[in-house]
TrEMBL record:
Membrane-spanning segments: none
Family classification: Belongs to the V-ATPase F subunit family.
Record carries keyword NAD: no
Keywords from the named record: Ion transport, Transport
Keyword Metal-binding applies: no
GO molecular function: proton-transporting ATPase activity, rotational mechanism
Stored Pfam families: ATP-synt_F (PF01990)
Highest taxon above the source species: Bacteria
Name the UniProt record assigns to this protein: V-type ATP synthase subunit F
């Protein structure tokens, strides 16, 4: 199994390429959806890395894949500008998922 990157940033793609991860840089909504569809067709891809910015743009598609596909695993990663998440995002996620305040 291999990883594949869908990024909106050349620097992120370059860094991942140095780690042996192939990928594509996209900006438009249609390009993002096409890149994701092409990655889903490749049965050798086990993990799709997508930058958080792009993940937000196609959140509905990512949610559908996570719910209906066994593979690949989709992981949203921060780009070189950092994460768009709030400091308590993991705590909030746990609270929403299981109803416990930690």
């Amino acid at each position: 199994m291999k990883m594949y990157l869908i990024s909106d940033n050349v620097d992120t793609k370059t860094g991942m390429r140095l780690a042996g991860v192939e990928g594509v840089v996209v900006h438009e909504m249609e390009e993002i959806r096409n890149a994701l569809d092409e990655a889903l067709k490749d049965r050798d891809i086990g993990i799709i890395l997508i930058t958080e910015k792009l993940g937000k743009l196609i959140a509905d598609k990512i949610k559908d894949i996570k719910l209906n596909y066994h593979t690949p695993l989709i992981v949203e990663i921060p780009d070189r500008h950092g994460t768009g998440r709030t400091p308590d995002s993991i705590t909030k996620y746990v609270r929403e998922a299981i109803g416990l305040k930690i």
